Give the backbone structure.
Amino acid sequence: MIVLSGASASGKTEVAKMLAAKYGITKVITTTTRKIRINEVDGRDYFFVSKERFLEMIKEDRFVEYTQYSNNYYGSTKDQIKPNRCVVIDPNGLQAYIALHDPNIITFFLEADEDTRYKRMLERGDNEQDAHARIVNDREIFKLENVKNVDYLIDSENFNVEDVADNIYKIYIERINS
């Protein structure tokens, strides 16, 4: 399993889509309480649920991990965890997957500077105020010391999505076949 982490607009979701399109790596569909964005589809991009339903799922012990970020909940359910899948996750979620001590789970942290990420947010339709707030919030959450024990740091600023996905897939295949 491929675990991708990184700050907002570091390329995680686009890399996951490329891994699916090019290599058949199925993206784990995480559950969230945030509002659906234009062009997103429930059950494809996320499972969109109410906060009340999410809290019920926590009580039912359905999550490998979950977090609250920008006043919304995000989590990956246990039934989504399978080989040849990819999950997009925050640093706390990353640590939950690392704690599984599964040699078939390979973790990656995608790095891109704030200016690049801000520009990407605006290009995908985020408003300036929200984009700025996410950049400020991400400064603390995604500090490298919060990403301890990650297997690989990946430059997603200076390489296009396909190159990043190719590099991640190459590493993944080498690791699971070793």
Summary: The chain has a mean pLDDT of 91.
